[in-house]
């Protein structure tokens, strides 16, 4: 066996540290982070907001879904430094235990979870789904959303929630929960 020697690491070779401010759940948080830290790790490890989960760490499961400037994103796929100054909303910022967001309440009322691991990402995604429909964003299931929330049938909800996986299979109840919020919001059914 040979004994390998490694040259000393110069300060210039160390990862860059960046000072950023994230507006998380309405509060500014200034952090100094390694430039390679994901938004998910910044939220969980540096701010203690553990609602967004690290499921696959590859953007495939949606457990890390948060809202950035009102749009849903996979927090594991983006670097925190890319969001300096951005408004980030996690599941913790949607409501309070005494006054939950309507989507949070609907998930509880419709038993739209089992183990609960994916639930925070599912809820953030469902909140964004309603805003996307109101804004007229089309999907593969519905090319024309001129009718707004009235166009949200179960197929459309499933399509728009397809980026969020539930290993327990609570999908029917997730659709029911989203449908309940649509009906309460829009008065349609």
Automatic annotation (TrEMBL):
Q: Name one Pfam family in it.
A: Fer2
Q: Fetch the Gene3D superfamilies from UniProt.
A: 3.10.20.30, [2Fe-2S]-binding domain
The record's keywords, sorted A to Z, are: 2Fe-2S, Iron, Iron-sulfur, Metal-binding, Oxidoreductase
Q: Which CDD domains match?
A: fer2
GO terms (molecular function) for this protein are: 2 iron, 2 sulfur cluster binding; metal ion binding; oxidoreductase activity, acting on the aldehyde or oxo group of donors
Domain 2Fe-2S ferredoxin-type spans what residues? 18-94
Presence of the UniProt keyword Iron in the record: yes
Q: Tell me the protein's name.
A: Periplasmic aromatic aldehyde oxidoreductase, iron-sulfur subunit YagT
Q: What is the lineage of its organism?
A: Bacteria, Pseudomonadati, Pseudomonadota, Betaproteobacteria, Burkholderiales
